[in-house]
Amino acid sequence: MYVELNKSVTxxxxxLRDQMHRFGVEVIRPAAIELDRLTADEVIAPGSRxxxxxxxxxxxxYHTRGFPPALGGAGLGPLESHIIGEEMxxxxxxxxxxxxxxxxxxxFAATAAAATGNKTxxxxxxxxxxxxxxxxxxxxxxxxxxxxGSDTLLFGTEQFxxxxxxxxxxxxxxxxxxxISGQKSAWVSNGTIATHACTFLTxxxxxxxxxxxxxxxxxxxxxxTKSPPLRKLGQRDLNQGEIFFDNVRIPKHYMLVDPxxxxxxxxxxxxxxxxxxxxxxxxxxxxxxxEALAYTRERKQGGKPICEHQLVQDKxxxxxxxxxAARALSRAASLYNRQTMPPxxxxxxxxxxxxxxxxxxxxxxxxxxxxxxxxSQEFHVEKLFxxxxxSMIEDGANEVLGLAAARRIIDGYRI
Length: 415
Description:
- The protein is of the alpha+beta class and 415 residues long.
- It folds into 3 domains: 11-130, Acyl-CoA dehydrogenase/oxidase, N-terminal domain (Butyryl-Coa Dehydrogenase, subunit A, domain 1, Orthogonal Bundle), CATH 1.10.540.10; 139-262, Beta Barrel (Butyryl-CoA Dehydrogenase, subunit A, domain 2); 265-412, Butyryl-CoA Dehydrogenase, subunit A, domain 3 (Up-down Bundle).
- It is 50% helix and 12% strand.
- It is built from 12 helices and 10 strands.
- The chain has helices at residues 11-36, 40-43, 49-60, 78-91, 93-101, 104-116, 119-130, 262-298, 310-339, 345-370, 381-391, 398-412; strands at residues 139-142, 170-174, 177-184, 196-202, 212-218, 224-226, 243-251, 255-257, 300-301, 304-305.
- The strands form 3 sheets. The protein has a 4-stranded mixed beta sheet. The chain has a 4-stranded antiparallel beta sheet with strand order 2-3-7-6, with no helix packed on it.
- A hairpin with a 2-residue loop joins strand 2 and strand 3 (177-184).
- It starts with 10 loop residues before the first helix and ends with a helix.
């Protein structure tokens, strides 16, 4: 375990870290390794260990860690959330995302209900999730589309405002309801198992992406269909799939964000999502480093453990250095942006790009230190490498996120 350099971390926060680490060791990681070796359909089938992990996580209250105590949530602060998030990423990046994104539509609805005083939204959407101990209510973030991926995050750029570019999923007012039609792509995390979707869509196409909105949509409504789960290189324990909407009718109060608020909301979401990704993949990077360190202490070449060879020692130090740098920026950006409005989104983006790049580099180095064994499924670094590769594309390709951050830096960095 790493040395906690923050002297203000309390014994209670350390105990929380240790508790989450045990849950990762005993529950999440063994299940994730098993799920990784199944087909995509088997991962989500009845009796799969996926459901056992979700159920145990809900029973521990991990699904409500971001909800206030007034709603029955754990009410964890930014530091506690980061500590838990890193341990989840250490156990499995895919399962960390599964358990993280599940709260998204419900926490979004809770925020909207608090702002509007809409008790119906709390009763119908939020509280059934908060009170769930069996994993019956599962959320997804439905933003990615066949025609749109990372470009949906380029808030503030010229293309974000052109009416030629809108979401595939569109909302049309119909009396006191909204009618939702369109398609979300195969990369919707939890898309195949979710009961509710936090759906990003177009409300006013004349404004382009600036005319967007956000709706919470129960996925058992007439007109909703889903694809089979996607077969993938990495994060195979994270189910992903398409969602189709064909004139799906929702009440007006399920539209949580209108076009007037949408540009501001997308910036806040970008800051939070990228901070979360940086936390998860700091955990994966640490996992890869620890696998390499343990292996080099045991593996002997030239009459001694290979960790006694200088070339290996330098490699281990560089891996250690990168992991610590990833945690430092990830934690700083996460804590700042959880407590500051408007957020400094470019710092969350920098943290996501750095952590995912480091996770990939450290996992690659871990394979190199394992030699041929690193390519075998008998050793965990092989899975870590595949999972890390996906991270530089998901939740915004690192290159496109860099463009979004650059726009903010150019316009807002004071010299």
